[in-house]
Design goal:
The chain is built from two helices and ten strands; from the N terminus they run αββββββββββα. With 141 residues, it is α+β, with helices and mostly antiparallel strands.
Length: 141
């Protein structure tokens, strides 16, 4: 593939929405489990979730319709996908297809990861919209 194929511009298409910049710390975190905070960012077709685990915190076994990709940034955690358990560290990636059961937990240390959901994770969409609007007000001030 040529770089011109990858970096081409199609001027016949209209943007779906304006782009935007902000800092992840501007998003107020939400906790569904004590010690596990989410900062979701909603795009047009994808949701990105900045996740932080305190020590000895667990995301219980669950599944969902959305595909999820997990990237560990800092620390480590034990991650289970459909019964297979691995210790994940910075740079490790997990791909979770729809409806595959998975869970995660930290032990003595913290962990920070990014989750990508496609389509956007249904239960985070409204919170992410509210956070996006609040961040927009901060960025506009």
């Amino acid at each position: 593939m040529e770089s011109s194929d990858h970096f081409k511009t199609d001027s016949s298409q209209q943007p779906a929405a304006p782009g935007r910049f902000f800092h992840v710390d501007d998003i107020k975190p939400v906790e569904y489990v004590a010690g596990l905070s989410f900062r979701p960012v909603l795009g047009e077709q994808t949701l990105t979730n900045f996740v932080h685990y305190e020590p000895n915190t667990e995301a219980p076994l669950h599944n969902h319709v959305e595909e999820q990709v997990v990237v560990v940034l800092e620390g480590e955690l034990e991650f289970e996908i459909d019964g297979e358990i691995r210790t994940m560290r910075p740079g490790d990636v997990a791909v979770i297809p729809p409806w595959v059961p998975h869970r995660a937990r930290t032990y003595d240390g913290t962990c920070t990861q990014i989750d990508f959901f496609n389509p956007p994770r249904n239960n985070l969409v409204e919170y992410a919209r509210t956070a996006r609007d609040a961040v927009g007000e901060i960025a506009g001030s």
